[in-house]
Amino acid sequence: MRSLSKFLDNRRRMTKSRLFCLLVVLGSAFMVLLIIVYWDNVGTANFNHHTSFSKSLPTYLSAEHPSDISATEDNGLSDVDRFLDSFLNSATTKNVRPSTKGEILAQPGGVNSFEENVRGYDWSSKTKLEESVLDHELIQEERKFNLRSFCANSSFHFPTKDRDFDDIPNKELDHLIVDDRHGIIYCYVPKVACTNWKRVMIVLSESLLNKKGVPYQDPLEILREDVHNSSSHLTFNKFWRRYGKFSRHMMKIKLKKYTKFLFVRDPFVRLISAFRSKFELENEDFYKSFAIPILTRFSNWTNVPPSAGEAFSSGAKPSFSQFIQYLLDARTEEQKPFNEHWRQVYRLCHPCQIDYDFIGKLETLDEDAAQLLRQLNLDSLFQFPPSYRNRTASSWEEDWFSKIPLEWRQKLYKLYEPDFVLFGYPKPENILKV
Fold this sequence. Notes:
Blueprint: H1 2-42, H2 60-64, H3 79-91, H4 101-106, H5 111-119, H6 127-152, E1 176-179, E2 184-187, H7 194-205, H8 224-227, H9 239-243, H10 247-257, E3 259-264, H11 267-279, H12 284-298, H13 308-314, H14 320-328, H15 330-335, H16 345-349, E4 358-361, H17 365-375, H18 397-401, H19 406-422, H20 429-432
Parallel strand pairs: 2-3, 3-4
Antiparallel strand pairs: 1-2
Helix pairs in contact: 12-14, 14-19
């Protein structure tokens, strides 16, 4: 009996030992899996086309700025880092244990090498690129914070600020272009590189075919008249045709899921640009719709020429001063809403009703466009088309407004003040004072 009892005891001990070994193996496998998941989540910034940009700072911030590392870490190493370090050391012949996270990242056999082997990363061009990305991300956070702060500021008022998205008429949603293929919504603002951004949206959505019957792949191949043809784009105001009574509900779903962006510009410089392109160049449509009313109200011409050709031949063109008068005249808005080329951005894109993920500026167009395409993982498809050389410069502002009476300038600023404030443009004190 004693021998049988001893035998059973030995079997129990062996079973427990095997169970313990099995648990150790399973626990080790679980920890390895946990490490892989951990590095997959925080090792790099991956953006999903169909979701908004991450609101958190990039993961490499803590690695490059030790002061940002959590206080729970010991000598720069978190618990996971320490485990990973021992895991790596056990898999290599190296006996030197680095003392800081920075040394681990720099060491040939450290985390970088481990990730590079596992995930195929190329770490050779890390520093300058990531510093540039970080700078741009911080700028974006500042722009969005400024916009949200003033939208939430109860002491800052302007028309339509406090209305709900449901209260925006469909006809005022015609500037929101939707690309369902990549989950992107772009609100275009005329005179802010919108021609080229519309070209990009056509390529992404494959909404237009070239002469060979295939979607365009190069934005610059798309003709200007096709770019501005409303049939080339799916906009929010067309949703009622597709979704009927569910159109507003579908808009809200896409606004929540998709990445939303717009590009803006100094409001006064944008006005100068609009005047130059629509009144200093021969444009029959704009002459009949806007130049004739301006000349009739504010010039000494008794017989205004009926066509743009005759007007340009005889010198009957509105001046910039007359254009400003037209904008300030109460009859203008009463008879017809501002044309999109000089309508305020807050009326075009509804920034207090729509939470934009990216705010680009024409003043930093090249950098912002590159950053946006990179964050959307589209930079490998194409580059943003180069901007026009004949761009209206901000330095021209004082010259253009020098002949405008001070009172008009101040009234004009009040008209466009929401755009200045919401998008972080400083008040042009040099123009608004004597």
